[in-house]
Fold this sequence. Notes:
The structure is a single chain. The protein is an alpha/beta fold. It folds into two domains: about 1-30; about 35-314, 3-Layer(aba) Sandwich (Rossmann fold), CATH 3.40.50. The protein is built from 13 helices and eight strands. It has helices at about 1-25, 35-40, 85-90, 115-130, 140-155, 180-185, 185-190, 200-205, 215-225, 230-240, 270-280, 295-300, 300-314, and strands at about 45-50, 55-60, 70, 95-100, 135-140, 160-165, 260-265, 285-290. The chain has an eight-stranded mixed β-sheet with strand order 1-2-4-3-5-6-7-8, with helices on both faces. A hairpin with a 2-residue loop joins strand 1 (about 45-50) and strand 2 (about 55-60). It is globular.
Amino acid sequence: MKYVIRCCLLLVAIVLSMYIYFTIAYSEPDLKVEQLTQRWAKPPSQFITLSGMQVHYRDEGPKDDPLPIILVHGTSASLHTWDGWTQVLADHHRVIRFDMQGFGLTGPHPQGKYRIEDYAQTLVLLMDKLGIEKAIVAGNSLGGYVAWSSAVLYPDRVDKLVLVDSSGIPFQSKSVPIAFRISSSPLLKYLLGDIMPRSIVKSSVENVYADPAKVTEALVDRYFELNIREGNREALAKRFVETKAGPLANRLGELSQATLIIWGEQDNLIPISVGQQFHSEITNSQLVTFADLGHVPHEEGPQQTVEVLERFLH
Length: 314
């Protein structure tokens, strides 16, 4: 019996030692927004006050465009995910993109509001501040959910919709990025705390690409640094609790806006069946899929996907 107790105590000591080691070795302290701004908020970046937040945004292209395009990023991404599309679109369109609450340089909402209705409200508040009555709204993943939810809740503000591997309908993933698994599990989040090695971020980005070879070190740097912006990790955990798929799904049939649905067939996070369901429930929609792209087709294959968007717009 004493031998068993000694073995158990030894095992506990080993596990505790490993936990302390990994906590010390792989914990990443928060970075203050001032530390990140110089690198990630270069011109034409600006900040605007919304609901007590300093929201990071970019407003590019002709300002007299009567129907701007607003691009909304997904979970753990930032406005930079739309660089490829913006380079093309801004030649002929006013293009606005921003870091949503809990992400990028914007950081957490001061009242911790991360319901889908809160994200839609932030979008509309930004439009109000910029004097935009109506816009074309495009979003990827969570950003797609924000886009179509905004069209449901504020139909007079959204002229057309573009859904890129959008969430908002319950689904079963084939594979979930490890960073998402940690953040969405209260137990793992409690045990691991600030453990977020760059390798986990790299693995998570590779997980949403069809071709991991396209994931550059510079791309990983961006995701890594912006995700450890002060407050973002805690906000991400709350977002997984508060922003659930499904609450507005029964209202998809209300959408009358012309809708382009873009999907990467190699998306292991949100399967193509979800895109097909959006297509079947949104009357005035078209679905275009890409055999060689994953969950972020606008980022992984910006040129081929933006060409489809431009045809839709014209």
